[in-house]
Fold:
Amino acid sequence: MDRSWHIPDDRLLKSRVHEQIVELDFPLIYTTNYDRNLERIHQLKKKPFIKIKSVLDIANAHSDDTQIVKFHGDFDDDDSLVVTESDYFERLQFESPLDIKFRADVLSRSVLFVGYSLNDLNMRLLLYRLHKMWENAGFVAQRPPCFIFLLRPDPVRERVLASRGIHPIVSDSLNPDTALEEMFDKLLSLRGQLA
Structure:
C-alpha cells in the first residue's frame, strides 16, 4: 500500500485540493489516510506541521504548528494502521489517545468533516455520542458549530445530521471531481473577505 499510494512531488504540487488545504491554514487536520501526502505538501510549501500518530506525538505537539493527526495510522508505523475488522471494532471503544484527543478537539472547536462516509459506523456512532454529551450537559446551544461536506443532496441524511448538530454543506457543483476544490475556493474567498 505504501508504494502504491505514493504520489511523486511534481504531481502532488499540481493538486489544487492539497494546495488549498495548506492555503486554508487549518490548525488541525484529521485524516484516515495512511499515506504521507498531507505531510509532504506541507513540507513542499514550507508550512510547519507536526504529525500525530501516538500519545507521545500528542504530548510533544506545538500549538503554533498545523497538527496532522493520522487517525487510522501511518505508514511510518505499521502497528498503528487500522485496517482489519478487529482494528475498527477496537476503535469503536473510542478510548485510544487519538480518540480522546479527537473528542476533546471536537468538543472545543468548529469542525469541517470532508470525505467521510456517513455509512461509516464509527463516524455515525462518534457523532451520536458527541451530540449526547452536549445534550446531557444541557449546553447544546453553546456547542461550536460542526459542518460536513456532502457531494449531493440527501434530505434524509441532512435532517439526521442536523438533529445531531452537524450542518450539512451540500455541493452545488455539477462535477463531483471538482466539488471539493470549488468548496475550498469558496472558503478561501470568505477568508479573504474577513481578513
